[in-house]
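Pilot study result, target chain (441 residues):
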Amino acid sequence: MSGSTTYEGQLCCAICGDAILPPTPEPSASLRWQTEAVLLSDPDQEFEQLERHYRGGKKRGAPRLDPHVGQEIQKDRAHVIEGDRLRILPAEEENEEGEEENPGRERECVRANNSYIYEENDQWAVTPYYIATHGACLEVAEDTMRRSPHDIIVRDLRTLWKALRMRFEVDDSYYMSTVTGAVSRPQRVQLPHGYYMPFQPSRLASGDPLVEHSATDSLVGDHERWEASYPLFVPKLTSAILENLRSLPPATAAIPESLAFQKRFLALPPELRDHVCSFLVSRNGMRSACNGLLPQWVWRDVLLTGKCLPFLPEIDASVVQGFCTLWEEEEEEGRGRELNWEFLVRRLSQEDWSIWDAESSSLKVPNGLRNRRRVWQLVEEMYVGDLVPVQRTTQGTYCVAVPRYWGRAGELVYPVMRIKVGSKDKQQLLGGSLGSHLPAA
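Predicted structure:
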């Protein structure tokens, strides 16, 4: 059972919410991927153009601005030095063996999730706003934006940038309105769903206190923190998934309606059968109850193609074939009992298995896949302006607000509105409304 994890003073990935760790001379295999950061920045500084033009949404009667945007969001590999300070790695930093080719070369040092003024050649300049992510989480996010079959909003890197940038704008404004002394700048935006990470007491029934674990710990007790597992390459993934397969219950009298549907379905051309199966895709997952309308081999093919489970594209057909052959050879009670592929696909399609207690889940999947599914879900649910603070009256007469430059899909909004900031609960995910608006001051 996982305990709670503290991220105090640590730089965290803006996508997954877990820590980005500084590299060490001999990093453990399980934590190495968390030291590989990618900084996102906007060379066109679209946010800054809008900020200057509208003065943070305070300039009355400002004409509409269509900022010049012609470049892609920039991605820079980096390593954490300390806190929010990172060194950007040049593209030629490492050779194929992972060794530095120019170890003596000076590298640029920047601060993440922050923008500040500096002097260069007797001129004042503003640094890009670098948003820190795990390189692996960014790869999962780009895969989600490209392959998700659902009606999601964030489909490109610029829209992802806008969603993350506005989250930090809310968090930064809240921080600036409440800081009273030398307090470390927050490096992890607090989200109501907690990034779908487990938060559970350790041995609570025995009276032990809650146990907090550092984000640099890959293990909690005897268990690996699944939310800190490498989400890209998952060893022996297909074999682990197949371990959840069970046989169908003993056959009962066939339902005439089911037999008639199967007969009509199998009479269709293959492309039409594929089209019918495409309707199995569901944003909230399929129901657990099996109906037996489709043959089991169809459900097996649904698993192999990955169209209904796009976060699981690397099922190995040869491993599946070997498993089926071995199953038939070891079946001693006759060959009439089929594998229940339908139940397996239905369970994998559901969201619950990715966010609850991994150790007690009846669905056993590798930790890396569980973490990938978590990141996939975070990106699918994301949209620009999805985080606004709950309205409250702050101390005194000072009321903090953030501008709203973009709509949910990143389209420009005019006129620009300001949204109030501040709450005992601090923040909530934006629902059907825009929250509380303030007129331009």
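One observation from the pilot: Residues 236-365 form one domain. A full batch analysis is planned for the follow-on phase.
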